[in-house]
Amino acid sequence: MELNSLLTFKAVVEEGGILSASRKLNTVQSNVTSRIKRLEQELNSELFYRKGRGLALAPAGHVLYEYACQILQLENQAGMAVRQVGEQSGELRIGAMETFASLRLAPALKRLKACHKGVELRVVTDTSSALVERVLNHKLECAFVAGRVDQEELLVCDIGREELVLVRARGSDCQSQLILFREGCAYRARALAWHRECGQQVSEVMELGTLDGILGCVSVGLGCTLMPAWVVAQSRYADELAIEQIPPHLSMVPTVMIRHKQGVPMKALETLAQAVIESAENDNRASELKTA
User: Model confidence at 85, in pLDDT bands (50, 70, 90)?
Assistant: First the structure.
């Protein structure tokens, strides 16, 4: 089996069809179709059921998909390992929560680029649960997430602990309307748990996709949220916000860096982890001074 055939097969599965796969692979549909047919002939097995214009994985296709993912990942790891030996840096795909990426990641990336000048960085933001899935599926080399992570396939490095605080507009006592990130955010889960413990009925949550958007809406009294204390201290809305402590079992949330055990060991990852730890320590000290 050729790697190109496996790559094409994987794209068809993940994109849900020939047309979408051809767009992702930047090729014509006939090339995708011919590669799939050639693969089926080589394996003497039907990989897809044809349903009108759609495709559904056949039992043999399910089996091949698992192996194709492993083979293509190994091919990627082999290339990265060889580049490391040759003192080339390769690509580093990093995931982070919105709050983390907005205020804490940039200084660490600056140090990473200074120490590993050839590294090609790719950064994506998402919820903690979505980032865990991306690392498990080898779509990211590492990610910074909040909360406890119990996955045998992952290596977990403790970055620090964040103290979540209740955030409201100054002079407001609004606690009924929560303004939060979307489902899968660790801070959202804590906010909903806090709301229940306060004996309040959880009404419709206002969901926003950016840190600035959430704190901006809170600052004008549209609702309240839970955020790390240092995030509030560094926000441009800090002077318009009031914070209040919540019980420790809800406020203290670990931040961790995760990577796959089968991933290629990279010195750049070690540099990144150390830079983030030092950045977190500096931010927390600055926050303590500002709120003292």
Answer: very low
β-pairing verdict for 241-245 and 154-169: antiparallel
Domain limits at 60? 3-84
Helices 29-43 and 18-25, interaxial angle, to 10°? 110
pLDDT value at residue 25 = 87
The answer to whether 188 touches 207, Cβ cutoff 8 Å, is no
Residue 137 CB neighbours (<10 A): 12
CATH code of residue 235: 3.40.190.10
Closest CA to 268 of 26, 83, 131, 103: 83
DSSP secondary-structure letter at 182?
A: P
Residue 91's SS3 state is strand
DSSP assignment letter at 184: T
CATH code for position 34:
1.10.10.10
Q: How many domains does the chain have?
A: 3
Do 79 and 14 lie in one domain? The reply is yes
> Does the structure show a pLDDT above 90 at 225?
yes
Q: What is the pLDDT of residues 163-188, one digit of tens each?
A: 999 999 998 877 778 999 988 899 99
Backbone φ and ψ of 139, nearest 5°: -90, -10
Q: Do 193 and 62 belong to one domain?
A: no
Confidence of residue 209 (pLDDT cuts 50, 70, 90): confident
Task: For residue 261, give the nearest of 252, 249, 269 by alpha carbon.
Answer: 269
Distance from CA of residue 232 to its chain's centroid? 22
Alpha helix ranges (H) inside 44-185: 59-85, 98-103, 105-115, 128-136
In DSSP terms, which residues pair with 183 in a beta bridge?
A: none
